[in-house]
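Handout, section B. The chain below has 327 residues.
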Amino acid sequence: MKKSILALAALATLTAAGTAAAQSSVTLYGRMDASVGSERVNDVSTTKLYSGNLTTSRLGFRGTEDLGGGLKANFQLEAALSVDDGTAGSLKFNRASWVGLSGGFGSVRAGLMDNAYKDIYDMGNSNNVFDSAFTPTNFAYAGVANFIGRPSNQVRYDTPSFGGFSAGLSYALDETAGVSHDLSAVNLRYRAGALDVGLAVQNQKNTVLADDRDYRLLAAAYDFKVVRVSGQYQVAEQGNGLEDNEYGIGVTMPLGAFDVSLGYANGKSELNGATIEKGTAYSLGATYSLSKRTKLYGAYTDGEVKNGAGTVTTDRRLYAMGVRHDF
């Protein structure tokens, strides 16, 4: 794996140097995030050295070539890293692997990337304890399985901004003969100054009709300077009559080099109109910037899920302290 990384780095350097006349650039970047903490699920606690609690550790390459007339060719390769044991999935680029074109028409990309729905979901959690492993929406939502936010075999188009409005459309092909597991997502977004608002819809097909899933999302974020807030409301439906109604809200307060964040999430799951599960979670976290590229952090999250009778079925807690460095 070490030889593979060195070879890719050398290739990136040679490519950047060899195409400088064409106004091309290739950037090697990464993130290392490690923390020590404990997770308790029901009555079982485990102390761990975590990788990527604040944000996923990664190694990546991104590049662009100016083709003239406002047209550019772009690409990105990004692999997840595990800081705790040094593995990189045999350097599998499982976070991003795409190539595309951009210009006055917007951008078109093909490959593996975040889809149009995930963009809006992440924005709605941006100030809910940093959209991290500690964000309470990860603990309170139950019932319908979580949406697929980074599908393979995807084609995505994003419009340019028109007076703050933009839209994104993504379609992922299942590529399995005789079945239809294709995934489609669309978003509409408005950004103006401190305000960011988005709507998104996602449809996930399945061979079994009862497992078809539809997701609808409204999210917003606003920077008041003294505090930053974000929130989202999601409805998830499954073909067997299962429906989830979920919301999360968070606030982040900058205090010099510190960012302190509070978050809350609530979810309710119904089957043919009858409540079968309810979940709640809250979280508190803080980061401290040692520099533009290095942060210390700590956070605590507590959440539980109850069945229709009010009995706790899952009780989960997570706390950790760590450091993140970007390069």
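Note. The longest strand covers residues 24-41. Compare this with the example in section A.
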